[in-house]
Amino acid sequence: MSHDSTPDLSRRRFITGAVGAVASLTVAPGIFLMQTNAQAGTKPGARWGLLINTNVCGDCNACVTACHKENGVGSMNRPTTDAQWIRKVNITDRATGHSRSLPVMCQHCEHPPCVDVCPTGASFRRADGIVLVNKHTCIGCRYCMMACPYKARSFIHEHLTDQVPHAPRGKGTVESCTLCVHRIDKGERTTACVEACHTEGNGAMVFGDLNDPNSEISRRLAEYGGAAIRADLGLNPGVRYQGL
Amino acid sequence: MGRGISLVRMILAGLLLAGAVFALAGCSPVEGPQMMQARGDQCVEPLEVIRRDHMKLLSHEKDQAVLFGVRNPNHSIRGCVECHVSPTASRDDPSSHFCLNCHSFNAVRMDCFQCHADKPANDYHFHALNPHGPGFGFDSAADSASLARDLESIIALETQKP
Ligand code: SF4
Ligand code: SF4
Fold first, then answer.
1. Using CA positions, which residue lies closest to atom 5 of ligand 2?
2. How far apart are CA A43 and CA B69, in angstroms?
3. Cα A11 to the chain's mean position, in Å?
4. Kind of pairing, strands A48-53 and A86-92?
5. What is the rounded CA–CA span in Å between residue A63 and residue A222?
6. Given a cut of 50, is residue B147 above it in pLDDT?
7. What pLDDT is stored for residue B146 in this prediction?
8. Are B80 and B117 in contact (CB under 8 A)?
9. What's the gap in Å between A140 CA and the centre of ligand 2?
10. Strand, coil or helix: A31
């Protein structure tokens, strides 16, 4: 039984053993050889990201509504402390008066400051680039909220009930966009926001593997480019914007 | 004189011991909590293993799932809840909730359900040994509905001018 939280592939292979067996093998009472029929884990070599075309994103809230419905994020009727996994931000160029509206969520930075500051290692980056909070070890200190330049994280102030099974959330922990990790681990290749943007919104968002040159997102980025918000910080976020 | 006192002491001690034995003999064994039926006929592990060591399995599983995306429905808390907890169970009434029922009997306070859903979702996710079969959400491959959605969005993207 490993309480080791370092992502170490060979050790994990050793512990999980042969794929395909169903039950664990009990060596002696209380000691197991873990064998699982679990999925293989994060896709090797992948880096998941989003591309958002602000030229077509307009006065619409479909992604926000869909995200919060998918993950059971509800309002407590206290807007100043309600959790926000994704929000619409309106920006106006003061010189020209030209304005834009774009969704902003956790940018899934390659060099995430939220991970640097976390005293417990609860804020971490998965091998496939998704930045998450391990709520089993989060102590609710909110350092990561201070460190995040995108104000992507929210703290849960109140006792919650009726969480959705795939998105555990609870009082005293910090949370943010998970890039719909429950879908990705199931093999799906879209997120709730991207799906809603295509069915109800303006089709402004693409989800995909930034490391796969043949993916839709990489082809679009290669052809039209895409900017990072606050690129000056050098965090190399996995969320890119066009038309800013 | 000294012998008389020690004799009295011995008799008193003997009486006390006998009293204690009688009192204990009068107690009936403590009755365990009334547990509810699970959906399906078989648990993921033999009963003596799962009763004693379910917390170890869950603890191992949580690290694998959260850190590495290795999700094993047979040892997930979600899997337990899907089979064992009734959709009408309530956290406020432990006797209606499989996990809380036994934990409150054993005076074990666990915090799982402060974050994790305490009731099954509408789409059940059974483990592989349950004759009802695992729900589609536990398939490692993409399900047909999500594939269809992916295709739709790809087609929409191809046809749309950036
Ligand atoms: S956007 Fe904020 S929360 Fe997300 S990875 Fe970057 S620093 Fe962390
Ligand atoms: S609030 Fe939690 S995730 Fe954020 S820095 Fe503190 S312990 Fe880490």
1. A118
2. 9
3. 26
4. unpaired
5. 25
6. no
7. 42
8. no
9. 5
10. strand
Does residue A120 contact residue A34 with C-beta atoms inside 8 Å? no
Query: CB of A143 within 8 A of CB of A118?
Result: yes
Residue appearing with tokens 């849960």: A156
On whether any CB of chain B is under 8 Å from the CB of A1, the answer is yes
Residues A139-197: pLDDT tens digits?
999 999 999 999 999 999 999 988 999 999 999 999 999 999 999 998 999 999 999 99
pLDDT digits (tens, 9 = 90+) for B29-66: 888 888 877 777 778 888 888 989 999 999 998 999 99
Evaluate: CB of A153 within 6 angstroms of ligand 1: yes
> What residue spans define the domains of chain B?
47-151
Q: Which two tokens stand for residue B104?
A: 């409150």
The answer to whether residue B70 neighbours chain A at the CB level (below 8 Å) is yes
Amino acid at site A40: A
| A232: DSSP letter | G
Question: What value of ipTM does the predicted structure carry?
Answer: 0.80
- Please write the tens of the pLDDT for every residue from A72-90: 999 999 888 999 999 999 9
C-alpha torsion sign, points A61, A64, A65, A67: positive
- On whether any CB of chain B is under 8 Å from the CB of A12, the answer is yes
Higher pLDDT, A213 or A39: A213
* Cβ pair A124, A7 in contact under 8 A: no
Contact A135, A122 (CB under 8 A): yes
Helix (H) or strand (E) holding A51: strand A48-53
Query: Three-state SS string across A164-193, please?
Result: CCCCCCCCCCEECCCCCHHHHCCCCCCCHH
CATH code matching the domain that covers A48-242, chosen among 3.40.50.720, 3.30.70.20, 3.30.70.100, 3.90.190.20: 3.30.70.20
CA distances from A176 to A84, A152, A167, A215, B11 (A): 7, 6, 11, 26, 72
Q: Which part of chain A has CATH 3.30.70.20?
A: 48-242
